[in-house]
Amino acid sequence: MFDPLSTPSPAHELAVECLTAGVRAAQPKRAVERHCDIEGSTLRIGDGSYDLDAYDSLRILGGGKAADGLAAALEGLLGERLDGGIVVTGHRTAAPDRVTVREGNHPSPGPDSVDGATALLERAEAADGQTLVLAPMTGGGSALLCAPADGLSAADIRTVTEALLDAGASVDELNAVRRVCSEIKGGGLAAAAAPATVVGVVMSDVVGDDPAVVASGPTVPVEAAPDVAATVLDRYGVDAPAVRRWLSSATPESPSVAARNHVIASGWDAVDAARAHAAAAGYQTCVLSTHLEGEAEQSGRFHAAVATDVALRDVPVEPPAVILSGGETTVSVSGDGVGGPNMEFALAAAPKLPDEAVVGAVDTDGSDGSTDAAGALVDADTVDPQVARTALDENDSYRALADAGALLFSGSTGTNVNDLRVVVVD
After folding, report:
1. Do 10-23+268-425 and 27-265 show the same overall fold?
2. Taking the mean position of all CA atoms in its chain, how far away is CA 268?
């Protein structure tokens, strides 16, 4: 799946194999196979059961980078019971027969995101009390589903989103702003479909796997709080005049609808599959965490420090060993270079690694930041320390790693369960 320019050692090869195993385990088809089934007329999703005979219509309505693959997997399970639907995705990787797939804009919302969200809401509003709506929601849906509140435009949403991302705002903070400015987020899709039964089928790309955070929670009623959104803008010094005017006149709202949500895939699935592959290869394994957040550069140095302890002191495990982690780091942008969190992570780790170690880090959707690279594969000799320092200061990790032949490419993977990091110590 990942295509490094070279794998000069068994440790490099194992790192790529672990990354590949992790991403494959998080594919929508595998997630549906693990957590969904039909027995008679009963559809089971996670811990929920739904009697299909109790409904006159069954539709799929959703969005996100993996929404097309998830819709195709659900269609494969439901067959002729499915009456159609629509999903909005980024780069199409699956083609369900009964569900229309539209492409939106990512990482920033645009006209296609607005058109897709509008079509989705119109289809939801056509549902009635005898309709069962399955809503596949995956990471990326916040940008791909853009339904600006009255008085705002997609450009307004894009401006404030990009400013907050560049400032290093967390996903929770972004969502606090996006919910107030949207008709579809924070339970808006479920409200549009009422009184239909709405069931969110969620693939999580967020730390903690809260369905309200994935894609900004179109099927999870959450109060839109203008004062909280304004506080976020103040915290990061974001101007965004149009959004601030909207917030000054908006009132707190919470959709009064009920919907069930089931998380069927997350970053843990990717980390656990990578761990199992390493163990099968005869390596000791240690999962640091699947909840890592914070600055990518600092996280990279921390992983290099753990690799050094493994190599020199046999802790927390004895080599040969594989250390793994998941979660979502961020980059506070001060330079004008090109890169992404996983590339910054790898570039910061490389000069600090012991000679025995190799680090691979990727975004499981195949696109780190706004680039065409999934991440990078590095060792202690990949890049000169001064070159790495300059590139990190300029947020130009892509070019530094490209020059070193260290980038990993996969194209769109068809899934999105956050970042996956593998440290191999031989």
Report:
1. no
2. 13
Is the backbone peptide bond immediately before 319 cis, with ω within 30 degrees of 0?
no
Domain spans in the chain, listed from the N-terminal domain onward: 10-23+268-425, 27-265
d(CA 88, CA 420): 25
pLDDT of residue 172: 82
Give the class (CATH, top level) of 10-23+268-425.
alpha beta
Check whether the bond before 320 is cis (ω within 30° of 0): yes
Helix axes 241-249, 226-235, angle to 10 degrees: 150
Task: For the chain, give the number of residues.
Answer: 426
pLDDT tens readout for residues 337-346: 999 999 999 9
> Where is 201: in which H helix or E strand?
strand 197-203
Residue range 15-30, pLDDT digits in tens: 999 999 999 999 999 9
- Residues 6+ away with beta carbon under 8 Å from 310: 316, 317, 318, 319, 321, 323, 357, 425
CATH architecture under which domain 27-265 falls: 3-Layer(aba) Sandwich (3.40)
- Judging by beta carbons within 10 Å of its beta carbon (0-12, 13-18, 19+), is residue 166 exposed, middle or buried? middle
Cα angle: 266, vertex 267, 270; to 5 degrees: 105
pLDDT above 80 for 12:
yes
